[in-house]
Amino acid sequence: MSGMPRYEIINLGFSPADGERPELRFIEGDIHFSFLDWREVLVRFTAYDVRYFSWIEELDVPGIRDDVAYEVLESEVIRKYKEQKIISPDDVYRHFKICFNEQGVLDVVCERIAVHGQKGLDEVIP
Predict the structure, then answer these.
(1) What is the mean pLDDT of the chain?
(2) Contact by Cβ (8 Å): 105, 97
(3) Which whole-number Å values give the CA distances from 35 to 5, 22, 53, 88, in the listed order?
(4) pTM for this one?
């Protein structure tokens, strides 16, 4: 019997609230994502070694906010992928749900997310 997914707000180094003009490119297993934040500053981040992702227009989980980033703990996707041996039990993948208000929701299972700073330096999210 598996537990229900739990949604924990996480600080990825940017706020998706009121983000506009989201742009997603899936290249060689990584997602390169950019958007304009509420200050109209361009935010860029990369999700590395993506195993699953979806972009949906409407938030699909009742009771969570539509303007923050979550880490999905006890993720159903990760559990299924480990059962089906798509990912090995030792692999560390994380499930994020990044909510951009009415723009949409990026749902992604990946190894890690890194934010690209204005100076081109990568900041790895712990």
Answers:
(1) 91
(2) yes
(3) 27, 4, 17, 33
(4) 0.89
